[in-house]
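hi! just following up on the protien thing from before. the input was this:
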Amino acid sequence: MCVYGQTTGTTTTTWDCCEPACGYTSNLSPGARGPVQSCSKTNGPAAAGAQNACFASSGTLSFSCDKYQPIIVNSTFSYGFAGHGNTATSTCCKCYEFTWTSGAGKGKSMIVQAINAGGITDTDFDIYTPGGGVGDFNACTAQYGAPSGGWGRQYGGVTSDAECAQLPSNLQAGCHWRWQWAGGDVNEWQTTYKQVNCPSQLTSLSGCTPAAI
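and the predicted 3d structure came back as:
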């Protein structure tokens, strides 16, 4: 698999229920075919012309999809989706492989596809994890009836595996992933990472394929 050189970075968690930034064709990285799929309130395909639920409160709204939860492959490797970088056109739809070098997940790895960007450093992976915190914007109240600040902390989300019970049943597996598979909070864990070609396990879910590297 072709790769660029490794870089050091960090991970954080998010689940704000907003339509991902990479859901807009104008935000795609050069050569990417997409955009990233967004969903209706009930996780079906978003209607044409639907407005991002984080920036509109009436009419037909679009949200993130519950299919963007992490996917366990084995005890040391998972697939997933993440926000990455401050400029969408630089990162949208690209894939990255990282290995944690600190935290309870030290030695475990993920391949993630960037489906969001903005307000994220160029070396951070903001992993899509239900109960991971709504951050600056919250569409989870509109989509699922979540508390106004989201489940748990606004930034970082729930603080234990037991708190995953607060989430809707269709999101609980992704919440448990964080505590049971990764082994802890995930926020501010250190990584080494590199860009890789995207596996079909991710592009088949997102609907977006970046240019090959």
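DSSP finds four helices and nine strands in the chain.
The chain has a mean pLDDT of 95.
cheers
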